[in-house]
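sry for the spam today, last one i promise. C-alpha cells for design, 283 residues
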C-alpha cells in the first residue's frame, strides 16, 4: 500500500516533537515540480472533494441516525494562513455543507462555562464539514504562554482534551487536525507585507508583534500540544506552511484522503422510484 500524505505528516502518538527540526519550506508528498504546479494540483482535487462532501451531506439527510461528520482543526501562529486555507480549500465545495467557526477570546457568556463548553456547541452537525479557525487548543497555547490560568489548571487540559476528542470521534465525527507551521522569518515578512499595503492594514494586529516576542514560548507550547494530543483517533498533522501553495495543496489532500476513507454513500430512496417516475410523467 502506498504511503498517504496523512502518513507523511502525522505526528505519531507518544513521539517527542522538536519543531526546530521541521523544515517549514519542505513539500513532502507533493507530486508536482513546485509553485507553478501548486494551484492547479489543488484545484484538480476540487471536484473530487466536492462530490465526497455532497455525499456526506446527503448521507446526513438520508440517514441521520447513522450519519457522520468531519471536523477540521486549523492551528498556527499568526499569519500561518488559517484564513487563506479556508478560502482556497473549502471554497471549492458547496457552502451549505460547511460550518466555519473562528474562535476569538471567550465572551462574557462563554467565561461562565468550562472552556470546552463553547467548543462543544460549535461541533458540526451530521453530514457537515466543520472548520475550527483556532480551537480548544487555545486553552493550552495562549493560556499557557500568557499565564492566564495557573499551570496546575492548564496542565490538566491535555488529558481533558484527549478524552473530549475521543468522545467526539466515537459519536461519528472524523477529526483532522492541522498545525500550519511557519518560520519566524516568514512571519516577519508577512507582517511587513500587511503594513506595506493599505488594502491589508485591516489584517494587521499590533498584538501579533507582542506574541511574536514570545516566539520560543509559543513553539514550546505547540510542541507540547503535538506531543501530548496526537492520538490514534485524532492525530496531529504538521504542515510546512512557508509556501502557501504547498499548504493549500496539503490541506486539500488531507481532506480528500479523510473523506475518501469515510466513503459516504448516496442514501437510498424512501419511496417507490418507479411509481414516482410514472407520476411525474403523467403530471
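last one done:
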Amino acid at each position: 500500500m502506498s504511503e498517504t500524505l496523512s502518513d507523511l505528516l502525522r505526528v505519531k502518538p507518544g513521539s517527542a516533537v522538536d519543531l526546530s527540526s521541521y523544515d517549514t519550506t519542505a513539500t513532502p508528498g507533493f507530486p508536482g515540480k513546485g509553485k507553478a504546479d501548486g494551484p492547479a494540483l489543488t484545484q484538480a482535487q476540487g471536484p473530487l472533494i466536492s462530490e465526497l462532501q455532497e455525499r456526506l451531506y446527503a448521507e446526513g439527510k438520508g440517514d441521520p441516525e447513522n450519519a457522520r461528520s468531519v471536523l477540521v482543526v486549523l492551528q498556527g501562529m499568526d499569519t500561518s494562513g488559517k484564513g487563506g486555507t479556508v478560502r482556497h480549500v473549502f471554497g471549492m465545495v458547496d457552502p451549505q455543507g460547511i460550518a466555519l467557526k473562528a474562535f476569538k477570546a471567550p465572551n462574557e457568556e462563554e467565561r461562565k462555562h468550562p472552556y470546552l463548553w463553547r467548543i462543544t456547541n460549535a461541533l458540526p452537525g451530521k453530514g457537515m464539514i466543520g472548520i475550527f479557525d483556532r480551537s480548544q487548543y487555545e486553552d493550552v497555547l495562549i493560556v499557557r504562554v500568557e499565564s492566564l490560568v495557573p499551570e496546575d489548571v492548564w496542565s490538566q487540559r491535555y488529558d481533558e482534551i484527549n478524552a473530549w476528542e475521543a468522545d467526539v470521534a466515537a459519536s461519528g465525527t472524523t477529526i483532522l487536525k492541522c498545525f500550519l507551521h511557519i518560520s519566524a522569518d516568514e512571519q516577519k515578512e508577512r507582517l511587513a507585507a500587511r503594513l506595506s499595503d493599505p488594502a491589508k492594514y485591516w489584517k494587521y494586529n499590533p498584538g501579533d508583534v507582542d506574541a511574536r516576542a514570545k516566539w520560543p514560548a509559543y513553539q514550546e507550547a505547540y510542541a507540547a500540544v503535538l506531543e501530548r494530543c496526537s492520538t490514534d483517533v485524532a492525530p496531529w498533522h504538521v504542515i510546512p506552511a512557508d509556501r502557501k501553495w504547498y499548504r493549500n495543496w496539503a490541506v486539500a489532500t488531507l481532506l480528500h484522503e479523510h473523506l475518501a476513507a469515510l466513503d459516504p454513500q448516496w442514501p437510498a430512496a424512501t419511496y417507490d422510484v418507479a411509481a414516482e417516475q410514472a407520476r411525474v410523467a403523467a403530471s
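The chain has one domain: 5-282. ok im logging off now
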